[in-house]
């Protein structure tokens, strides 16, 4: 079954609005990674979080890793049309280090 | 330029005709992995390799084979392709997995259609 759940599946926002996607794992993760995939492109690594409660920022993007290391979120402030794409979370579990479990992604559409 | 390359980029084939999708990285990465992407299902891991001669199954290994005879190459083999293997395939590599910043680089993808 799906190891990592991600919601929402789709999000449509007007430029300037904020956007958040959430990831939830049934088991504790050793890390959480976030990727962005533009339409027709390949996934591009954005960031990795490894510590419980960790928060990292990249310009308008804020990434959080939950205290229990089972959930994570990506928040974009004041979206721009360049933010369009699908955002995926993915995590490793300590017991099977090579396995990477992806969420199904959130497809973000931004209209001007 | 650091990159992961895949060939072919597009392939249309018929059921049962063996095919190989090649993957190569020029970053001396130890870890390589194959994923398939299907609409609504996201990315699912097929096989991964922690190092040369070390491979292991991911979520959906059935119908696929891999080999890792040298560090830079990680081919994906479909011995007898079936229509349910029609998908977009990505190869990826990274220096290490687990704790620590391990940027995973993805190839451009191979769109496979099995008739």
What this model shows, in words?
The complex is a heterodimer of chains A (about 110) and B (about 120). Chain A is mainly β and about 110 residues long. Helix content of chain A is about 0%, strand content about 60%. Chain A contains no helices and 11 strands. In chain A, strands 2, 4, 5, 9, 10 and 11 form a 6-stranded mixed sheet that branches. In chain A, β6 and β7 form a beta hairpin. Chain B is mostly beta strands. Helices cover about 0% and strands about 50% of the residues of chain B. Chain B is globular, with a radius of gyration of 13 Å. The termini of chain B are far apart. The mean pLDDT of chain B is about 95.
Structural class of chain A: mainly beta
Overall 3D form of chain B: globular
Q: What is the subunit arrangement here?
A: heterodimer
Estimated helix fraction of chain A: under 10%
Distance between the termini of chain B: 36 Å
Largest sheet data of chain A: 6 strands, mixed
* Mean of residue pLDDT values of chain B: 94
Tell the overall outline of chain A.
globular
Order of helices and strands of chain B: EEEEEEEEEEE
SSE pattern of chain A: EEEEEEEEEEE
Query: Uncertain segments of chain B of ≥5 residues (pLDDT<50)?
Result: none
Number of strands of chain A: 11
Structural class of chain B: mainly beta
Strand content of chain A: over 45%
Supply the number of helical segments of chain A: 0
Instruction: Give the uncertain stretches of chain A in residue-range form.
Output: none
Rg calculated over all Cα atoms of chain A: 13 Å
Q: Could you tell me the strand content of chain B as a percent range?
A: over 45%
Q: How many angstroms does the end-to-end distance of chain A come to?
A: 38 Å
